[in-house]
Amino acid sequence: MTLPTSASAALFERARSVTPGGVNSPVRAFNAVGGTPRFIRSAQGAWLTDADGNRYVDLICSWGPMLLGHAHPEVLAEVNAAVLRGTSYGTPTEPEVELAEEIVRRTTAEKVRFVSSGTEATMSAIRLARGFTGRDVVVKFAGNYHGHVDALLASAGSGLATFAVPGTPGVPASATDLTLVLPYNDRAAVTAAFAEHGPRIAALIVEAVPGNMGIVPPEPGFHAFLAETCRAAGALFVLDEVMTGFRATAQGGWGLTGAVEGWTPDLVTFGKVMGGGFPAAAFGGRADVMSHLSPEGNVYQAGTLSGNPIATTAGLATLRRATDEVYAHLDAAATTISDAASAALTAAGVPHRVQSAGTMFSIFFRDGEVKNFADASAQDEKAYAAFFHAMLEQGVYLPPSAYEVWFVSAAHDDEAVAHVLAALPKAAQAAAAV
Ligand code: PMP
């Protein structure tokens, strides 16, 4: 039995004639796994319904934001009430203050500035770090994604401490020749880069727990080492919590590292969950650094829809319901699903490796520990594609790429989890047959 897909296929055809590749963000297309992306018409709780009426348990959760599940009735009620008061004024509003207070209360940030996407958050944090330090060089790690910021769409240069080259056409060499790209979890590479370029380094940026090459946790103490290396060099340590913030744990990815090891980042970026499914993101951090932003300071940064009242209302409604019970539920659902997936893959003889960070996990289709991007790249993408399609066919929507986190929500109840578990053995066999 194959699911009907004619309505999605027809929409995809129309989409391709007016939008490059038919999608507004590349990974939504099924380029990595083949086939036609499903056009989703509605979502409720843990479930998506596509244009043909097929239902799927959602393990993408909008790539992280939908912490409470889709169309949460209380969040929707607050959003609906906010919409009726008007959708954007271009003036300061109370929900912005409330959301900022909530974020400051929950995180290491002393002050925050709102933007509309994670990309804007990291771009602005880098600009602020450069303005604050009066330096230009930025350090990042291979396989860490920080949005499509020119300076951060960079690939490693020819040597460890040599400057990067553009990671995509369209980024001028002048945008990446102040960026250093290092292998993740590699202290020697960090030491070498700071030894050679330390006085020129404005900032080092790292995902709080890297999730954009699949989950690759920092080795114990690695981020403490980064924080100390930055401090000693007078560079700012920027922690990217766009994916992990309010998601990996109640304290984000930092809850697994800095909270235990006793360090705080100078700047931090947020997105996804804090917008409750609307376009809202933020960067924040030390008050003395943030005070360099205009209009208080002279580092320019702005946005017509920044702090939008609907987005901040949705974010606040979400964060206020993100209780310890919610994180405990996410933990349990993630553990049940990842354990069962691993058992099914083992039974079918498919090499794999589960890695997790709090409530977030991913499955690499290879054996052995994955410590960096080179390790993550050495997986069997064809086996994943077969697994993905067999899950989809059974009503489970996984990320259409082997390099992504599987996200659960508070709405992933026993029924939804059981539906995922029931689909796993057949999908594992499909992966084994590749
Ligand atoms: N940083 C991280 C860690 C991310 O995961 C993402 C998006 N996946 C971004 C930044 C960019 O966010 P956005 O897509 O909202 O621009």
TrEMBL record:
<dbReference type="InterPro" id="IPR049704">
    <property type="entry name" value="Aminotrans_3_PPA_site"/>
</dbReference>
<dbReference type="InterPro" id="IPR005814">
    <property type="entry name" value="Aminotrans_3"/>
</dbReference>
<comment type="subunit">
    <text>Homodimer.</text>
</comment>
<dbReference type="InterPro" id="IPR015422">
    <property type="entry name" value="PyrdxlP-dep_Trfase_small"/>
</dbReference>
<dbReference type="InterPro" id="IPR015421">
    <property type="entry name" value="PyrdxlP-dep_Trfase_major"/>
</dbReference>
<dbReference type="InterPro" id="IPR015424">
    <property type="entry name" value="PyrdxlP-dep_Trfase"/>
</dbReference>
<comment type="similarity">
    <text>Belongs to the class-III pyridoxal-phosphate-dependent aminotransferase family. HemL subfamily.</text>
</comment>
<keyword id="KW-0627">Porphyrin biosynthesis</keyword>
<dbReference type="GO" id="GO:0042286">
    <property type="term" value="F:glutamate-1-semialdehyde 2,1-aminomutase activity"/>
</dbReference>
<protein>
    <recommendedName>
        <fullName>Glutamate-1-semialdehyde 2,1-aminomutase</fullName>
        <ecNumber>5.4.3.8</ecNumber>
    </recommendedName>
</protein>
<dbReference type="Pfam" id="PF00202">
    <property type="entry name" value="Aminotran_3"/>
</dbReference>
<comment type="pathway">
    <text>Porphyrin-containing compound metabolism; protoporphyrin-IX biosynthesis; 5-aminolevulinate from L-glutamyl-tRNA(Glu): step 2/2.</text>
</comment>
<keyword id="KW-0413">Isomerase</keyword>
<keyword id="KW-0663">Pyridoxal phosphate</keyword>
<keyword id="KW-0963">Cytoplasm</keyword>
<feature type="modified residue" description="N6-(pyridoxal phosphate)lysine">
    <location>
        <position position="272"/>
    </location>
</feature>
<dbReference type="InterPro" id="IPR004639">
    <property type="entry name" value="4pyrrol_synth_GluAld_NH2Trfase"/>
</dbReference>
